[in-house]
Amino acid sequence: QVKLVESGGGVVQAGASLRLSCEASGRILSRLAMGWFRQAPGKEREFVAAISWSADMTYNADSVKGRFTISRDNAKNTVYLQMNSLNHEDTAVYYCAASPRGAPSMAVVVSIHHYDYWGQGTQVTVSS
Questions:
Q1: How far apart (Å, rounded) are the C-alpha atoms in residues 91 and 71?
Q2: What is the distance between the alpha carbons of residues 90 and 49, in angstroms, rounded to a whole number?
Q3: pLDDT band at residue 100, thresholds of 50, 70 and 90?
Q4: Which of the two ends of the chain, N or C, has the fewest CB atoms closer than 10 A to its terminal CB?
Q5: Can you tell me the distance from the alpha carbon of 126 to that of 62, in angstroms, rounded to the nearest whole number?
Q6: Sheet order of strands, 18-25 included
Q7: 66-91 burial by CB neighbour count: b if 16+ within 10 A, else e?
Q8: What is the mean pLDDT of residues 13-25?
């Protein structure tokens, strides 16, 4: 069993930056591919970014390319999402997710069904 706890959300103005963290417990994070998803009110949960367990592969949604960066520190059992140049469309609850099946391709990691474990989410609100 894996427990994921997100932190770092908040209310910021457009153009600001935030760094989200996701700390895992219960299983060694280093063997898990990790992803970030987000869900805005009235919308489906959507893929944001993913990273392989060794960090040799990262994937980003087109909507966040050049602005968001996913990274991980396996020694700290923590995954990060650095978010820069935030805009109103980034407002959502952000979820961390873990998968024991790796991060083989974009087509795979974008699916919510690829992930077995989910955090409770952290709210990010960007005011214009």
A1: 21
A2: 13
A3: very high
A4: N
A5: 19
A6: 3-7, 18-25, 78-83, 68-73
A7: eebbbebebeebbbbbebeebeeebb
A8: 96
Distance CA 116, CA 55 (A): 19
C-beta of residue 101 within 8 angstroms of C-beta of residue 33: yes
The CA distance from 39 to 124, in Å, is 10
Q: Is 80 exceeded by the pLDDT of residue 7? A: yes
Report the pLDDT averaged over residues 24-36: 84
Report the DSSP pairing between strands 92-99 and 78-83: unpaired
Q: What is the mean pLDDT of the chain?
A: 95
99 contact partners, CB below 8 Å, separation of at least 6? 32, 33, 34, 35, 109, 114, 115, 116, 117
Give every CB contact of residue 40 below 8 A, 6+ residues apart in sequence: 91, 92, 93
